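User: Is it possible to get a 3D structure for a protein together with its bound compound? The compound here is zinc ion. I've pasted both below.
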Amino acid sequence: MESKVVKAYGTASAEADLKQMNINRRSVTPKDVEIDIHYCGVCHSDLHFARNDWGMTQYPVVPGHEIVGTVTKIGSGVSKYKVGDLVAVGCLVDSCRTCDNCKDDLEQYCPQWVGTYGGYDKHLDSPTHGGYSETIVVDEEFVLRVPKNLDQAGIAPVLCAGITTWSPLKHWKVGKNSKVAVVGLGGLGHMAIKLADALGAHVTLFSRSPNKVKDGLALGADQVIISTDEEQMASVMGHFDVIIDTVPYAHDLNPYIGTLATNGTLVVVGYLGPLDPMLVTVPMIMGRRSVAGSLIGGIAETQELLDFCGKHNITSDIEIIKIQDINKAYERMLKSDVQYRFVIDMKSLKA
Ligand SMILES: NC(=O)c1ccc[n+]([C@@H]2O[C@H](COP(=O)([O-])OP(=O)(O)OC[C@H]3O[C@@H](n4cnc5c(N)ncnc54)[C@H](OP(=O)(O)O)[C@@H]3O)[C@@H](O)[C@H]2O)c1
Ligand SMILES: [Zn+2]
Ligand SMILES: [Zn+2]
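Assistant: Yes, that's possible. Here is the predicted structure of the complex:
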């Protein structure tokens, strides 16, 4: 099918820095919306994918799945959006739409879900490319509406960091007086604190970093526990209904399981892979405690979250960067030196 060449930033191998490249965007089909990208958030998954940490990357890759922009063109059959609308795209751009998960608004668990990058664009018969680019073309069913009262750049991280923590908070029925803990204060962690706080929960942050205590409290945590301090860890044994663990690398989950209350659940969203050390089953059996996982969120749930953020005036705490600084940003992210999400101003690519 017809396509057009646009500028993007990506990499052709795991070892190379990201640099400017050209990619093809399909012409709009009857159900498509073309979006001029204003801002794109930088997720730790972008770094994992660019560097093939998960062993599944096909190159070249153009990362980016926290996209905000305006509609510049619509297909003949588009009914939800018009030219000029402020819209967003998250981690998903398509799914089969007929399986049980799709019917239940759980497109993220569809066996044929199409990622915003690293997926398969059936129209172009080529890989999908993400938001580190001038434009993107997406089926209107996978496009989201952005509340007008919120800062455009600040809302971008809601599309991944926000929904990835919101979905388990809702699934495990967090509400007023729930006791929630968040492990790791980065992009996902800071959104988890804000969202759990807005839902009325009592929120605890587990962090390795004593220099983040003040920020954790300012973001909405009621207390911060330094995870390397045994006395502090002992003070919260048997305490939490839900723990959201956002740490990106293999780490010991066992010390956290004992801090769950009876029937509590530790939800891993950060690390993808075999655990090291292994789980000790004793605290799970002795307290009917669970360890679970969760992947992003569905389209309807993401729209619900955007609307919730509009109502409660919630955005991400961000540092705006130029696309030319993306490689430096990745290095800073590896050192946990982000307060608390980088967002790329895509004007820097168009200049
Ligand atoms: N499940 C999903 O659907 C989904 C969606 C999006 C992202 N993810 C994944 O979630 C993870 C977090 O993403 P992010 O963008 O929030 O990353 P991030 O901004 O880099 O934050 C991660 C935080 O984890 C802590 N941390 C980092 N390395 C650690 C280590 N080796 N041991 C213990 N703690 C460590 C740090 O917090 P402290 O300094 O406070 O300890 C850090 O700020 C990534 O692996 C990403 O791929 C999953
Ligand atoms: Zn992400
Ligand atoms: Zn499906």
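Residues 161-293 form a domain with the Rossmann fold fold (CATH 3.40.50.720). The mean pLDDT is 97.
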